[in-house]
Design goal:
alpha/beta, seven-stranded mixed beta sheet, 12 helices, 11 strands, 46% helix, 17% strand
């Protein structure tokens, strides 16, 4: 579903199991690496989703990090990222966010993804892609899958955790998928067998309701078309709120550079606010964001965006 061309090319070498949303897929992948991969080292971007650390630590992996976010520019630190990747021990695993990086909202461009893939290939790293927000970054599920397509086209044997919670509106139903692209069909069959053994003591078998809904939407031509329109509508609304907040800050007289509001992408934004500023917004004005300055743009609406802009100036 994430890419028709890859589906046709690698279907015989791909093993997929239904997971309990993206979190479950990550845990399955962590356990698989622990049990079957030569290296137990896993590198996370700095920063990364807060739950990545406990998920992979509880999977028995040795966690390390690589440079990702540049605080000064509130953007991608590609130079130091590539440098760090070049120093990772061969055979280790590197985790990447496919799109709408959480928590920063900073995504590589297609050209930057190309360079990242090349650097990882040189170090012979195992690639683990977390795709929790497909469609909610650019509004196109195809564009948001660029990294997945690129890494497979470049010959990487990837692990992929997918969540349908946000883009299908089934957050409370916990529907996802975990996939491994293997060397050949024989290896894929062996991998699938081991995935079943790992999953059995975790949750035995997943719930059917959301999975049937997702399958129906993805396989019914008319429903699929409507879903693509709906996903783009959600992404466009989030993008419009970024633009409205930036414009509101300018109207309020802010002289600060807020370009990162619209340069970043997806549901979340690293505002650049410090813990003291966050505390004041929360305690005095009931605006809630994490202490590192991350705010959910999805929670911003046409009714509260001007109010938020005024408070940010204060």
């Amino acid at each position: 579903w994430y890419q028709r061309r890859v589906r046709e090319a690698v279907v015989s070498t791909q093993s997929t199991g239904q997971s309990i949303s993206g979190t479950g897929g990550l845990r399955i992948g962590g356990m698989f690496i622990n049990k079957f991969h030569g290296s137990k080292q896993l590198y996370l971007p700095a920063p990364s989703w807060g739950n990545h650390t406990p998920i992979f630590r509880e999977s028995g992996l040795e966690l390390k990090s690589y440079t990702y976010y540049k605080k000064d520019t509130k953007g991608l630190d590609l130079e130091n990222m590539l440098s760090d990747i070049g120093n990772i021990e061969e055979g280790a695993t590197i985790l990447l966010h496919a799109c709408a990086h959480n928590p920063t909202g900073v995504d590589p461009t297609n050209e930057q993804w190309d360079a990242i893939s090349e650097a990882i290939k040189k170090r012979n790293l195992l690639v683990f892609i977390d795709m929790a927000y497909q469609g909610f970054a650019s509004g196109s599920v195809e564009q948001d899958a660029y990294a997945v397509r690129k890494f497979i086209d470049d010959g990487h044997k990837i692990l992929l955790s997918q969540s349908f919670a946000k883009n299908m509106g089934v957050y409370g139903q916990r529907c996802g998928a975990f996939s491994i692209v293997a060397e050949d069909a024989e290896s894929a069959a062996a991998v699938e067998s081991q995935l079943k053994i790992l999953i059995r003591p975790l949750y035995s078998s997943p719930a059917l309701n959301a999975a049937r809904l997702v399958t129906t939407v993805l396989t019914d031509e008319e429903l699929h078309k409507q879903w693509l329109i709906d996903v783009k509508g959600m992404a466009d609304r989030i993008i419009s709120m970024r633009e409205a907040l930036k414009a509101g800050l300018a109207r309020e007289g802010s002289v600060h550079n807020w370009d990162h509001l619209t340069n970043q992408i997806g549901m979340f934004c690293f505002t650049g606010m410090n813990p003291e500023q966050v505390g004041r917004l929360t305690n005095e004005f009931s605006v809630y964001l994490t202490k590192d300055g991350r705010i959910s743009i999805a929670g911003v609406s046409s009714k509260n965006v001007d109010y938020l802009a005024r408070l940010c100036i204060k």
